[in-house]
Amino acid sequence: MAEKLFGKAMKRVEDPRFITGTGNYTDDMTLPGMVHAAMVRSPYAHARIKKIDTSKAQAHPGVLAVITGQEMKDAGINSIPTGWLHPGIKTPPHYAITFDKARHVGDIVAAVIAETRQIAEDAAQLVEVDYEPLPAVSLGSEALKPGAPAVHDDVPDNVCFTWSIGDKEAVDRAFASAYKTVKLKLRNNRLVPNAMEPRASLAQYHKASDEYTLWTTSQNPHIHRLLIAAFIMGIPEHKLRVIAPDVGGGFGSKIYQYPEEIIVLYAAKKLGRPVKWTARRSESFVTDSHGRDHETVAEMAVDQNGKITAVRVDTIANMGAYLTTFAPAVPTYLYGCLLAGTYTTPHIYCHVTAPFTHTTPVDAYRGAGRPEATYLLERLVDVMAHELGMDPVEFRRKNLIPPDAFPYQTPVALQYDSGNYEANLDKALEMVGYKQLRQQQEEWRKQGRYMGIGVVTYIEACGLAPSALVGSLGAQAGQWESALVRVMPTGKVEVFTGTHSHGQGHETAFAQVVADELQIPVEDVVLVHGDTGRMPYGWGSYGSRSAPTGLSAIVLATRKIIDKAKKIAAHLLEAAPEDIVHENGKFMVKGVPDKAKTFFEIALQAHLAHNYPADLEPGLEATHFYDPKNFVYPFGTHVAVVEVDPETGKVKLLRYLSVDDCGPVINPLIAEGQVHGGIAQGLGQALLEEAVYDPEGQILSGNFLEYTLPRADDLVQIEHDHTVTPCPHNPLGVKGIGEAGTIASTAAIANAVMDALRPFGIVHLDMPYTPEKVWRAIQHSRLAQAAD
Amino acid sequence: MAEKVQIKVVVNGVEHHSEVEPRLLLVHYLRETLGLTGTHVGCDTSQCGACTVHLDGQAVKSCTLFAVQADGSSITTIEGLGSVDKLHPVQEGFWEMHGLQCGFCTPGMIMAAADLLNRNPQPSEEEIRHALEGNLCRCTGYHNIVRAVQYAANKMAGKVGVAADD
């Protein structure tokens, strides 16, 4: 029998094209007759558009069209809808090109289509827009103040929605009778996702058949097709094909329906020529949906035994100027429902107010709500442990959900299906040498060196998710996933998945599993994704759902193939189907190894159907639509060790260790790679990254000169291991691993930095911990101590 | 529009004579004029390094040069570094060590790493991290990129297939 590939660190089949520069990203494509779009974007965060004069741009040599919002509205192009609704939510329109007001810097006010990109960009500067600048607001809490400038005229108080979860009265009672309470005011800094490939879209219109093709940088091409067809442009869904070819990272930012995709489709039909648009990075900074941006008051209560009795959270979650596709889900169900963490906290209440502001829209960014929840909870745990005079690890241990408590019903809706948190914690502590680290920390402090140790025990809910459940919570989408497994006459296999790989290595990992299931060589399997013209309907990849939902669908489809193959084999071998076993790559009569057919022989006969069961359809392919029974619940322990230089404020990462539990690991190379990358993004939030707006809505960190992405020398080699607690409700027991690193690492590094600063009496600082911020805090503390 | 300028460049061993606008960036010349789309554009401020190529044997960010500045020079892009049949050791290292995920930064990262090994055949981890500071990757956390470069250094030194931190 072929070697079992599940669990093998196979090199990726994707890589040869990428390492030789022969990948096929959207901007790499050129079509005959292709022309180029450039956007005219508002330089103001808030302005009334009094007049647009396109005449100079129109007259510029090489310009083919200048498109305004009014033109598109008159042509019947509708607003871009949001995909998640809460009761009472305000959903003001979001037109691809705005025509009344600009509501954030970067809002599109016109589009220029020209023979070359250079001409389009030149001519975009010739479009004369008469703006009347209006007062703007960029901070969520400012937008909620009486008299704040309204982002949308029909939402005068800027409140998009309010949301809450948990029993407030029970929580208030727990706080009233608490032994100790702690309270933190914290800001979860706004981030720019910054996938390395800027967004790009290329549209083609086929006049003879009235069909459109859109190549675009997407994590979920079917969602785009559905939104564009049914809601925005009225294109019959079967007349629009959306292809997401090689996509250079997403991290959430390529989930959403963006204006530029609508504009190039509209222009392609108008001009009868393919139209391409590619973002400049400076456009990405102001138009890719941002992440995080919370202002929160978080409180924790404990009893005298050091058991957490309640958590109370009040958050202002900045939505930006418009609601993008999943924005309302992020600071609500993906946030408040995670506030139990790994702990037995009996009472939790979370209230969220989500205002509009004159800033770039905010939606899911890697982790999406769960890093925000984990950050505040794990900060509270560390601060409380300090209040109690306990080691933060021992305080955690006292409150962990015990392994015999599963399935565990939290007070915030989720029911955790499985977990073994303490064993995972112990493994991490042993690997990192926690006791020795604490001793070393003591010694260093005597020498005037400031080491900090941050430990986080995290849980995440991912693998979205039972469709009826998410529907009841407001999703305007299902969250099942599809697979089509097609066996060719020669026994080669095409696997079509509704999920999308944009760095996650599905072409390798999914093929490993299919090869195992069908007992065929992995080289005989190819994964097809990212093309609505080829795959069954699927919901795409985000929320660490590809393995738990997409791969589950694939596995169940392969099992249908095997069932059918057994019937064909039984006919060929003149045996009963129930006597056929699938072993060693063959279908054989049980106990009679000589009587066997290979997968190829069965595939061929399924297509010839010359010698074939009378009651069986020819062909060998199977589709499966898999609706998960629950979320999946990966968990783990992360430990960060940092040193703070008090003279410069510089934080240096000394060590980083993670022990993650994503269930059985399909491909350790890929899974660990996901953890590494997630940790780097979490480190970015903790130490380096922040989308800074001035009060008038101008972004001050709008390019890589001012917005600091983690670089190679900001990181260390990551120490990693895992525990295995299978998910009890999907066929392989697998859980997601794409977001875990980010969910845990921000909090782990934050706790480490605060631990390092404890000798200065510093309890909390908001991220990112830039040298300047840390240095100022230390100086302030020293001055205060000197004054005492 | 400014008058076009005649340039001659050798790219991946092939001589090209082209008329280009003076403002045309080298990266756009490679991608759009020559169709060599392996060299990527990830930013507009020369920070990300996705456009790194070798110009007369040295790594340069091809978005910081005009095509006319490359007149008379010899350029190697990712397409010319090695092929699937005959990978450069750095390409091989990236594959072996899972030094890439989405693949977008990868060509620039490989060109920068190859340049480092030309200058410093046995770099320390710290030297590798320092040398790759000008290349941004959002996927890998650089862990496996470091290992990929170590793999290539070992391979080039004749120590085949040794994963440096194992």
Assign the structural class of chain B, choosing from mainly alpha, mainly beta, alpha/beta, alpha+beta, or little secondary structure.
alpha+beta
Q: What's the total helix number of chain B?
A: 6
What CATH architecture of the largest domain in chain A would you give? Answer: 2-Layer Sandwich
Taking the alpha carbons of the first and last residues of chain A, their distance comes to 76 Å
CATH top level class name of the largest domain in chain B: Alpha Beta
Q: Name the helicity range of chain B.
A: 25-40%
Q: How much of the sequence of chain B is in beta strands? A: 15-25%
Strand order of the largest sheet of chain A: 3-5-1-12-9-10-11
**What share of the residues of chain A lie within helices?**
25-40%
Task: State the CATH topology of the largest domain in chain B.
Answer: Ubiquitin-like (UB roll)
| C-alpha Rg of chain B (nearest Å) | 16 Å
Strand segment tally of chain B: 5
Q: Biggest interface between protein chains, with counts per chain?
A: A-B, 59 and 59 residues
Q: Pick out the low-confidence regions of chain A.
A: none
In oligomeric terms, what are we looking at? Answer: heterodimer
Which strand order do you get reading across the main beta sheet of chain B?
2-1-5-3-4
Number of strands of chain A: 28
Q: Would you kindly provide a written description of the structure presented here, covering whatever features stand out?
A:
The complex is a heterodimer of chains A (788) and B (166). Chain A has 788 residues and is α+β, with helices and mostly antiparallel strands. Helices cover 30% and strands 22% of the residues of chain A. Chain A folds into three domains: 190 residues, Alpha-Beta Complex (Aldehyde Oxidoreductase, domain 3), CATH 3.90.1170; 329 residues, 2-Layer Sandwich (Aldehyde Oxidoreductase, domain 4); 147 residues, Aldehyde Oxidoreductase, domain 4, CATH 3.30.365. Chain A has a seven-stranded mixed beta sheet, sandwiched between helices. Chain A has a five-stranded mixed beta sheet with strand order 7-15-14-13-8, sandwiched between helices. Chain A is globular, with a radius of gyration of 28 Å. Chain B is of the alpha+beta class and 166 residues long. The radius of gyration of chain B is 16 Å and the shape is globular. Chains A and B meet through helix 1 and helix 18 of A and helix 3, helix 4, helix 5 and helix 6 of B.
